[in-house]
Amino acid sequence: MPSFPAWTSRTVSRLLVVLLALFAALAGTGADALSEPAASPDRPRYDVTLRADADGSRWAGRERVTFRNSSDRPLREVYVRLWGNGVDKCGTAGTPSPVKVTDVRGGTAGPLTVNCTALRITLPKPLARGERATVSFGVSITVPKRNDRFGREGAVRFLGNALPVLAVRDAKGWHLDPYVSTGESFYALASDFRVALDHPSKLKVPATGRTWSVPGGPGRSVTVSVAHRVRDFAWAAGPFHTAVATTPGGVRVKSYWAPGTSAAGVRLTREEGAAAVDRFGEEFGRYPYGEIDLVMTSEFGGGMEYPGLVLLGTTDEGGAVVHEVAHQWWYGIVGNDEYGAPWLDESFAQYANARFYGWETRDCWSEVEWPSNSTALTNSMAYWAAHRDEYHLVYTAGSCALADLERTLGADTMARLLKRYAHDHWYGVSTTADFKKAAQSVTDKDLTAFWKQHRIR
After folding, report:
1. 10 Å Cβ neighbour count for 194?
2. Using the 8-state DSSP alphabet, how is residue 38 labeled?
3. Closest by Cα among 253, 381, 398, 397 to 312
4. Element (H, E) at 221
5. What CATH number belongs to 240-328?
6. Which CATH number applies to 38-146+161-196: 2.60.40, 3.40.50, 2.30.29, 2.30.31?
7. What gap in Å lies between CA 268 and CA 284, rounded to an integer?
8. Residue 8: its pLDDT value, please?
9. Span(s) in the chain for CATH 3.30.2010.30
10. Signal peptide location in the record (predicted)?
11. For 232, which of 5, 162, 308, 436 is 20 to 30 Å away at the CA?
């Protein structure tokens, strides 16, 4: 009879804990999830050079993208999203699409699909797990004549979602969702960018990342930007006034405002933006990018977030800077599929906004607000785009639901939950299931009824 070690009851208990944890991690994943990482192609690096015309309305140059296949499945193609074509789609004979890709190298380009917002590039050979590849292409960008995140206001040009970026493939396949103007369709993995923007020296060019300018040709400058682990790259161009300050927490805040923007609003926006980036750094984890740009104009509608840069309509009362700064964590650092689960960034950013201002949220939840049983906080943009008059619920009811969760768990527990959750998903991708599991793990209360009541499905 073979001899066995004399295990103590404590040893057996520890072994059982390990085994239970392992089974819990595997439960419900399925074979595909076990072999398929959360998302691919990962570790993208973008190297971009663009040259502007006299007023920043047109940019042209070249983009090079290097990436890795992190999946067990061979990567036979990649998709490039031309989100700048979202509003105009494939254009007309007189007004072509604002973003064009030409001279593709490193693969074979197919026709544009999804209303000219998706370009398939077939790779020369299947890319095995862990292998890297590079594709490059010419890029031409014409800023549309509308006041929008990709548009213009007076002499200012906004280039949000103008630069082509890789689509994501995960266990659900390629994410090739349509563009929506109410909300966002964007889903991208944390990436590295090095971008050189050649422009007339009279233009100031705020951009994602740490930026500096060097002399270009006669009357021109080159703004160079380097950004690590960001989900997108945006910039603006115009005759901005500028100011730079460093917060007590060490974040460099660069402010840009167009002529005619309210001086009182600029002051308030600068103050609140600096305070917000430090406060959220304490609450969710230190802001990792070192620099953030606040771009202010008088007529821009609301605000729009990009990594390290926010666009803000600014009046005497300021603007939406606190909400947009909160997005640096909820969408930027803690990523999510903004088309599939917009509440994971908008509701969380608005909850942070409400906490910053100390808004009263007790008893804010009301079933009266819900139009039908099919309306849920966790609906995708496919639903909200078809029910635009209900989309405000992602902000109002969503932040209220998180405030109610804070009261259910306790303020200290909620604070620990969010900080730990951000840490665990830093530069990663969050899902509704992830958050529900994390919240349940910090309390002995069964949250099933809470999720049902607050339509978090």
Report:
1. 17
2. S
3. 253
4. strand 220-230
5. 3.30.2010.30
6. 2.60.40
7. 23
8. 38
9. 240-328
10. 1-27
11. 436
